[in-house]
Specification:
This protein is of the alpha/beta class. The protein has one domain: 3-Layer(aba) Sandwich (Rossmann fold), CATH 3.40.50. The protein is built from eight helices and eight strands, in the order ααββββααβαβαβαβα. Helix 7 links the parallel strand 7 and strand 8.
């Protein structure tokens, strides 16, 4: 029996779980059957998902950007708030990108981590941007360059935001292209020192009975997917990230769309810095501006 650092005296649970479910995490190939398993695992009901009672709380202009603070109800709990940003000189519809903030162990602030609002960003959000995002509100930069021939909606997120980007990619057909940053590994690759740093968002209940995390992210293949990895990411093992990359590559080949998946590896720890942002935005523009048509 292997002793896993984070599981300690519960290390034998891995053996028990594998014996109960017939071995390691199975492979779930892209397609409707795997998507149905994802929906069932997440407990999605029937019908179209839609926000309720959408409001525009305030509007502002900052330089070349126009902003709106939106709020809506998901049917329970406090209202959700978000910023909608667009170039001030834009004419006609533009591609949309949903920028999903990271978790960071700091959950009081969300949208303020990745975008500027009408007021100055809180110091704690500014400090986090310096650590994780190269010192800038990446959502502001993302929308500052208008594109032509809009073809849909993209999403991008780091860490916990990357997990939500993967879940959106898997469940929402309105997503044209998705970028997952610093949130990709096989489950086996998290053993033995990368378990405690993750929560239920990365481990949807019962999903490992059906497939691995890369299987979930790829279930809509050939829908375009970019995953950015940091070679020294403290939240993942190099072997787990490389195995996830290989698994995603195989899934897109199986879907007859080997070019639909792109994996990019960068030096450094857990982050989405300017170099990574530039690469991600260039990739998104190819699909959202119609330069490359999704398969």
């Amino acid at each position: 029996m292997s002793d896993y650092q984070h599981l300690g005296v519960y290390s034998d649970l891995v053996r028990v779980a594998r014996a109960r479910h017939g071995g390691p995490v199975p492979a779930a190939l892209p397609g409707p059957a795997t998507r149905a398993l994802v929906f069932d695992t997440l407990g999605f009901g029937g019908g179209e998902e839609a926000p309720g009672d959408v409001r525009v709380e305030q509007r502002w202009r900052s330089g070349d950007l126009l902003g709106e603070e939106l709020s809506w109800s998901v049917g329970f709990g406090p209202r959700t708030h978000a910023y909608l940003l667009k170039p001030a000189d834009a004419e006609g519809p533009l591609p949309g990108v949903l920028a999903l903030h990271s978790h960071d162990g700091l959950t009081y602030y969300g949208k303020e981590k990745v975008a500027d609002g009408p007021a100055e960003a809180p110091p704690v959000a500014t400090a986090l941007r310096a650590r994780q995002y190269g010192g800038r509100a990446f959502a502001d930069d993302l929308v500052s360059r208008p594109d032509v021939a809009p073809r849909g909606i993209g999403c991008v997120g780091l860490s916990g935001g990357g997990a939500r980007a993967a879940l959106l990619q898997a469940t929402c057909e309105k997503i044209t292209a998705a970028v997952v940053v610093g949130m990709m590994s096989t489950y086996d690759g998290l053993l033995d020192r990368h378990v405690a740093g993750h929560g239920w968002l990365f481990f949807p209940a019962t999903w490992p009975r059906h497939g691995d995390w890369p299987d979930l992210a790829a279930c809509r293949a050939p829908s375009p997917l970019l995953v950015q990895y940091n070679r020294n990411d403290q939240l993942f093992s190099p072997a787990g990230m490389r195995a996830a990359h290989d698994r995603l590559t195989a899934h897109y080949r199986h879907a007859a769309a080997p070019g639909g998946y792109t994996g990019q590896f960068f030096d450094g720890s857990h982050k989405f810095d300017m170099t990574m942002q530039q690469a991600a935005f260039a990739w998104l523009r190819q699909y959202l501006a119609g330069v490359i048509r999704p398969a």
